[in-house]
Design goal:
Blueprint lengths: L13 H10 L3 E5 L3 H9 L4 E4 L3 H4 L11 H17 L5 E5 L9 H15 L3 E3 L7 H9 L4 E6 L5 H4 L9 H16 L4 E5 L3 H10 L4 E4 L7 E4 L1 H4 L17 H17 L11
Parallel strand pairs: 1-2, 1-8, 2-3, 3-4, 4-5, 5-6, 6-7, 7-8
The structure holds 3-methyl-2-oxobutanoic acid.
The site of 3-methyl-2-oxobutanoic acid has 10 residues, from loops.
Amino acid sequence: MNRSVQQKASHVTTRRLLDMKQNGEKISMLTAYDYTMARILDRAGVDVLLVGDSASNVFSGHSTTLPITIEEMIYHAKAVVRGVHDESGRAMVVIDMPFMSYQLSGEEALRNAGKIMKEHECDAVKLEGGRVIADTVKRITDVGIPVMGHLGLMPQSIYKYGSYRVRAQEEREAEQLLEDARIIEQAGAFAIVLEKIPSALAASVTRSLTIPIIGIGAGIECDGQVLVINDILGLNREFHPRFVRRYADLNTDIENAARQYVQDVRQKSFPSPDESY
Ligand code: KIV
């Protein structure tokens, strides 16, 4: 199935997100890593699906986002884009550029962003960083590829920080973050994710910038919210930071379903005649 922005009038675009900010409509964003989930989330009306490099954690079981490769991101992204195309086609799909796919040089970043856009038919790429990557953001947006920024806690820099604690609590770091957000907006980004920073700072960035600000652990004043789908579904029992609201306990539900299945097989109650040919 082929989609074009004209064909699907409801498709969420960068323009639509800007209008939402201007009209005070909140933007909903969730991560997705596979076809089935993308279909469900698109059907549910989620505005933006992020193929996050958090796939490295929740799909592959790595302790950080660093190991995921561009080929692995392409695999997840293709599945998600296919899911959206096969459902309402409404959700915007944004792909995280993985660690070291955009940091080496502007040219390499552009090549990889182009590869992602060409191979995935997605809507935009997301990059972590402030002033250090401003030229790269400009270079990518100049050729027509929409870029979403990511500031605050940047998981690709976890070894530099040494912990996942709340960022920009001190005045100097807070001022730097606001300045970085302005620079990334100036460089051409259409939106910025702010991760795990004080609500008051996120509110100030949201008010100061024209482009939409999407928060994760950044309070209610942002223009929108993003969470990792596995977290809101309660798939991981061990991971429950304060910024995650759990809407289901699928860890328990799946375990119970699998236990019941094992029992039915062992007790020879599955398959029944009705479930057989
Ligand atoms: O990779 C990811 O899931 C993200 C979100 C946490 C914003 O970047």
